[in-house]
């Protein structure tokens, strides 16, 4: 159920190569993390950028965008806004393809229970991303994690480099996890 990547940026790239072919739609609300757009262009996918409303709630059009991949950065960068697990579940059940919830900043959210990892077993098209780069201050070590049902992880494993992580990063990330309060 877990894939470790050379930073969550590598996992984002794996997701695009795994699920998006030429002309496939990739949707996300904007403004958000700028790498999504770059990766869609590299893959020759079709960008579907939906503007956030003033309160940064999930835009209704995102549910029906008919996208192979939908990204939701939660909490969102640059707005710092958080959407609830109920809204994430509703979005995941509505989208055509996979929903990727990028939780790079979740450790800074006020409610520690706001992570969508707990939904990944019951929602078959949901991938949740975490990184050691922000709350653990380990950006230079390049380590991120993807959580999803085993079938999704197995597909992503086929696309990743055979030896995508170095041993020092693995040791440091394991130590960091044991250091959680
Ligand atoms: C920093 C960041 C990433 C990438 O983090 P790495 O694990 O260092 O690759 C992914 N998504 C968001 C929203 C980020 O801010």
Give a short summary of the structure.
Helices cover 29% and strands 20% of the residues.
Unreliable residue runs: none
Number of strands: 7
What's the N-to-C terminus distance?
Answer: 23 Å
Gyration radius (Cα, Å) is: 15 Å
Largest sheet: 7 strands, mixed
* Range of helix content: 25-40%
Give the structural class: alpha/beta
Order of secondary-structure elements: EHEHEEHEEEHH
Named once each, the bound ligands are: pyridoxal-5'-phosphate
Describe the structure.
It is a single chain. By secondary structure, the chain is an alpha/beta fold. It is 29% helix and 20% strand. The protein has 5 helices and 7 strands; from the N terminus they run βαβαββαβββαα. Strands 1-7-6-5-4-2-3 form a 7-stranded mixed beta sheet, with helices on both faces. β2, α2 and β3 form a beta-alpha-beta unit. The protein starts with a strand and ends with a helix. The mean pLDDT is 96. Pyridoxal-5'-phosphate is lined by residues 7-9, 33, 73, 77, 102, 104, 131, 133, 139, 144.
